[in-house]
Amino acid sequence: MSPPLEHDYIGLSELPFSAAAAAGAAEDGALNLKETELRLGLPGSESPDRKEKVGLTLGLLPKVFGSGAKRGFSDAIDGAGKWELTSGGCGSEVEGGKGGALFSPRGEDGGGQLSGHGNAGKDVAPKADGQERKAAGQVGNSAGNDRGVAPAAKAQVVGWPPIRSYRKNTMATNPSKDKEDADEKQGPGCLYVKVSMDGAPYLRKVDLKAYNNYKELSSALEKMFSCFTIGQCGSHGIPGRDGLSESRLTDLLNGSEYVLTYEDKDGDWMLVGDVPWEMFTNSCKRMRIMKGSDAIGLAPRAMEKCKNRIRISF
Amino acid sequence: MTYFPEEVVEHIVDFLGSHRDRNAVSTVCKAWYQVERLSRRNVFVGNCYAIRPERVMARFPWMKSLGVKGKPHFADFNLVPYDWGGFAQPWIEAAARGCPGLEELRLKRMVVTDDDLELLARSFPSFKSLVLVSCEGFSTDGLAAIATYCRGLRELDLQENEVEDHGRQWLSCFPDSCTSLVSLNFACLKGEINTNALERLVARCPDLRSLKLNRAISVESLNRILARAPHLVDLGTGSMMVNHHTEAYHRLINAFLGCKSLRSLSGFWDASSCCLQAVYPVCVNLTALNLSYAPAIQGDDLIKLICLCFKLQKLWVLDCIGDKGLAAVASTCKDLQELRVFPSDIYGAGTTAVTEEGLVAISSGCSKLNSLLYFCYQMTNTALVTVAKNCPHFTRFRLCILDPGKPDPVTDQPLDEGFGAIVRSCKNLRRLSLSGLLTDKVFLYIGMHAEHLEMLSIAFAGDSDKGMVYVLNGCKNLRKLEIRDCPFGDDALLKDVTKYETMRSLWMSSCDVTLGGCRALAAKMPSLNVEIINESDEADEFQENLSDLHKVEKLYVYRTVARGRTDAPDFVWIL
Predict the structure, then answer these.
(1) Region entry Disordered: which residue ranges (chain A) (predicted)?
(2) B53 in any annotated domain
């Protein structure tokens, strides 16, 4: 796997805030860079360690995730699937608080898995390290009593407990079968699968156990991969105050939409959304965000409908 | 001065097995250096960046067995970025050129590609044994190359690697002429296996003693395999998913009855409690048992099984065994030397599966215990003091209290005294991992008493630089020090820079060392590689602009005779 390309692909290198991110100094120009900083954080929530900074998520708008398409997955997404500008953390490693390592107790870094994401403000983070560390410890204490609780309450520490990822991954696909209430939502462990996106320079991994339904998964993936799509915009991709408009983005993408597919245990590539969520998580080995044009053979009729819809929206 | 003929020196040196002894011999004089280097058969390189592979091959041309380790230990816990390094390629290439007589290769925490495996398979006509531990970067295609081209292969041992599944045909690549296998371990493979090919392979290898199957192997297949290989000593069972009242289950019972030589069992991936009874006949002879990947087996059934294993020396379990189960282990397994208790519920609800009581019970029953890895929710000083008294023979003691920085729940005190008791009592302690709430005092104790300590892992501990300095000053035999999330800064780092030359490596992450401190270290000690691993993606553009006060997130320092390294990715700066 080639190393991640530099900021160009993130698409924001031409923008002043990437400079601000690294130098850490408040080089805020008129553009109010703090607003546009990419932050690591959990989906839809602000990172608890950085209350003063609000990140914006840049999104893209694949119509296929929108409501109306007659496939089960899209139905589940149900309107929330639009990839659009939202405020909140840039959900890179989007865990529901149960998943694996998120950020170190210093709240600065997503750890080894996250390469190349704007780790802005590393230098400006306040030096409350001791406090942060203890806070992490205390949070860890209290979090022991509840599972599947809102992520902000339970700060997962990168690389803790010190268990080999091989063991973590293996145990994740091997949950205890004797649980009285086979409550999948609160099942132990994690289930990391690779997610690739056509045209992106590197893959990501998501923890399927961190989500309860297709909707959550979809929004997480949107946030995770939004930066790649913006990257293709190149110099066009400067977000205005209101963000990218739908039509402009789909213009740039040449009206191509994306389809989410997965490889199941038998090695076949399936469209996400057909089977119940639990069945999906049990059989999904990896995922791929395909360009619509490649997704021939996966529900051709649905693709037709989507294509028509996009054209109409202009 | 009597002249010692080289032949005599060589004869004497041949008796020396350990690397340490041989290293010492080689420093006596030039003649002895020559004799030693030409007669060394086993070479171990603890850090692949400490020396260039070509130099190793040049020095030891008659090497038969090579072991190399790559990434630092904390890479196991995702603290080292994916493409940091540790590539096997230069080693295999250099060996192919310089030591074509190589017979054994053991790699740990390295990146191995399919091309590397193919080169390996084709380059060494006498190749016998490949052991890969915690490696990644290869697929079943690479295994196919090994199977195809390594005539006379005796051992293929894949332990906990990340292997891409490119299909099941790799196993069929072992030619019909391959009859030499002694050990085959593919338990870490995730994909399906050609069971026909496997059964035939097992049938034609009469010397097969160790076989570890992956989860895809069904009980039906296991039955057939055991029927053809009743002389197995070490078995990884595969899925072990079977229902009680089926023919397959009855055949399984018979199969195990036939395995008179079985001493070590592992696997049990999907085993439920009922099928454990099938292994009861072999329990009485078992010396090693690994049930740490079998969460479906409940505490009571575990206990029933373990109560039959009175010769057990090594036990790996999940914490669902409970304190009660550990008490059963303590009363049954009097020969126990190594115990590992893993958490079954990592992100857990705090269900107290095992506590200090279980550990105390073990220590009172198993006085021969010398190696421990114990994950628990709490620990008390009293318990640790008791354990120290009961088990003075610990060489490896790793305790992980799942809550970072948690104090003794009874007294609310740090665990300094408990760990202090351990280091005072266990004079041969070589490896120690700390956890729980700890102040600088514990490091004072470690520095004072842990004379033979070679590896120390610290997390969320200490109050000040003094802690780290106590350790660096006191532990004369320290080789590896790894620290995360501790308040140790530049003063500690720079207190005694020559110390790092006596060590293999130092890792510090999320501590208080600054770029300035690291630069100072690098300037003073050219014999060290001082690596800053900086994952902020803009930072490398601004390396020059970063002030000395910039906190270093991850620091990895190691001694080396190969200055710098050519394969470092952008986010690794070698100062």
Answers:
(1) 96-154, 166-186
(2) no
Would the pLDDT of A270 be above 80?
A: yes
Choice among A216-220, B129-133, B468-472 with the minimum mean pLDDT? A216-220
Is B512 part of any domain?
Answer: yes
The Cα-based distances of B207 to B149, B158, B229, B233, B517 in angstroms read: 20, 19, 9, 11, 56
Angle at B314 between CA B309 and CA B320, to 5 degrees: 75
Q: Is ipTM beyond 0.95?
A: no
- Name the domain count of chain B: 1
- Sign (positive or negative) of CA dihedral A218, A223, A228, A231: positive
Residues of chain A contacting residue B296, judged by C-beta atoms under 8 Å apart: 176-178
Instruction: Write the single-letter amino acid at A151.
Output: P
pLDDT of residue B156: 97
CA of A141: which chain B residue's CA is closest?
B403
d(CA B338, CA B288): 9
Out of A162, A164, A177, whose CB is closest to B296?
Answer: A177
Which of A103, A165, A264 would you mutate first to test chain B, the one with the most B CBs within 10 A? A165
pLDDT on residue B424: 97
Flag whether B472 is in a domain: no
Query: Looking at CA atoms only, how far is residue B35 from chain A in angstroms?
Result: 41
The alpha-carbon gap from B137 to the nearest alpha carbon of chain A, in Å, equals 9
Residue B550: list chain A partners with CB under 8 A: 123
User: Would residue A268 count as lying in a domain?
Assistant: yes
Q: Is B376 on the interface with A (CB under 8 A)?
A: no
Check which CATH number belongs to the domain holding A276 and give it.
Answer: 3.10.20.90
Domain membership of residue B502 (yes or no) is yes
Q: Which of A22, A100, A113 sits opposite B538 (nearest CB)?
A: A22
Tell whether A14 is within 8 A of chain B (Cβ). Answer: no
* Cβ-nearest to A166 among B134, B404, B406: B134
Cα A260 to Cα A197, A222, A313, B443: the distances in Å are 9, 11, 22, 52
Q: What is the pLDDT of residue B159?
A: 96
- Structurally, chain A folds into a number of domains equal to 1
DSSP at B436? S
Percent with pLDDT over 70 in chain B: 97
User: Chain A window 185-214: which residues touch B at a Cβ cutoff of 8 Å?
Assistant: 188-190
Contact residues on chain B for A115, CB-CB shorter than 8 A: 81-83, 535, 537, 571
Residue B317 to residue A124: CA distance in whole angstroms: 45
- pTM for the model stands at 0.70
Q: Nearest Cβ partner of A144 from B350, B541, B571? A: B350
What's the domain range around B526?
Answer: 498-574
Q: What is the pLDDT of residues B547-570, one digit of tens each?
A: 888 889 999 999 999 888 889 888
Would you list the DSSP string of chain A? -PPPP-HHHHT-TTSHHHHHHHH-S----TT-HHHH---B--TTS--TT-TT---EE-----GGGSTT-SSHHHHHHTTTT----EES-B-SS---SSSS----TTS----TT--SS--TTTTTS-S-HHHHHHHHHHHHHHHTT-SS--GGGS-PPTT-S---HHHHHHHHTS--TT-SS--GGG-SS--EEEEEETT-SS-EEEEGGG-SSHHHHHHHHHHHHHHHHHHHHGGG----TT---HHHHHHHTTT--EEEEEE-TTS-EEETTSS-HHHHHHH--EEEEEEGGG-TTS-HHHHHHHHHHHHHH-
Contacting residues of A for B538, CB less than 8 Å apart? 7, 18-19, 21-22, 118
Best of A49, A141, A166, A268 to substitute, by most chain B Cβ atoms within 10 angstroms, is A166
DSSP 8-state secondary structure symbol assigned to residue B398: E
Half-sphere exposure of B427 (CA within 13 A, CB side): 0
